[in-house]
Amino acid sequence: MTNLKIAIIGAGPAGCMLARLLHLANIAATVYESESSPDFRSQGGSLDLHTNTGLAALKEAGLFDEFLKHARYDGQYMAIVDKNNKPHFVRTAEGWGSGVQERPEIDRPKLREILADSLPKGMIKWGHRLKSVGEDGTLNFEHTSAAGFDLVIGADGAWSKVRQLLAPEVKPSWTKIGLYSLSIPNATETAPELSKLVNRGNLFANSYEQRITVQQMGDESLSVYAAVVSEEEKWSSPEVCGYDSHDIDAVKKRLLELYKDWSPELTDAIVKAEGECTPRSLYMLPVGFKWLHRRGFTVIGDAAHLMTPYAGEGVNVALEDAMHLAKAIISAATEGGGPDILDRKVEAFEKEMFPRMEKVQRLTEELMHDNMFTPGSPQTTIARSVARHAKFETPWVFHPLVTASVHTFFFMRKLLP
């Protein structure tokens, strides 16, 4: 097996999963991460991993048993309600079946910790903030540079420097949706009624251009996301919003004004929030985004197909990308590892990824419009949204039957007292 020299930019889930799979195959890879040191404490809420993508990648990486130590199978509960807290769709934890299509939850920081800790010491180069990528593959960091790689892989997220080299004309677009990330610590005691609504899973409350998401976390806290729709891309700057968007008291006051006609059972998620408050802006790459293949470079995860979170597929397809790309690189190495062989394998990976990702991107964009930009949501959109999800999981030949079945179910339910 020829020795390959691989650079991975970004120590997020996709980058670490790829590095882990290459390490198991004895292929040298170096992960460059801008963060100065491992810190997994405040990096997002809860994730549900899916059988054929995220969970499959963890099994391939030999990390499934470690994942099980932290996974919450009771966290598969999901409720979609309107602003009056009327349920429109409820899925119990048991409703996901026994292994066929499971979606166990895990805290995002814990998943990243599992993946990073699975790598040999020194494989991740912390404190390497990438400034640019040279035409010859030279990586220019803030304080140093590195070169001589057979393949540079961008797993560097929304504002990927590697993607900038592959497609400099393409930039993520502002979706007009901002989120305030809040937290309710020790929620069973501080917000017991809200905890009952969440039922150790996920609660999604929708209205036109409004949404509150509440997720159970492994430390018994609740993670809260409250949406703010704005034409202004700098929506959270003091010059635009008129207050400090990191001041939780000011943010709570503004959110309670925005959500003043919502059920108190739901706005309790805002009232009971404590501690840090983080504004987040949602961006996306164009649906069906592709780039012209270029020898020595590729991108995966958000760098390749940045999406909003409305389909819950982002981390799953990122881990799937890593699994597929690892197989391509390993295959090239076993066949001799020459530059031409590696190039063909990477190009074949990209050609497979493009249609696979377009399907996910399209679903995500459609669900974003269903949830955030359709009057009467979720009442007017729930059947359509559930049908979209169901069709995504089934072969196209069954799509007419799936659509008819879902719409019939919701129509009949409306007739019941």
TrEMBL record:
Key words of the record: FAD, Flavoprotein, Monooxygenase, Oxidoreductase
InterPro entries linked: FAD-bd (IPR002938), FAD/NAD-bd_sf (IPR036188)
Pfam families xrefs: FAD_binding_3 (PF01494)
Record-annotated FAD-binding domain positions: 5-344
GO MF entries: FAD binding; monooxygenase activity
Protein name per UniProt: Monooxygenase asqM
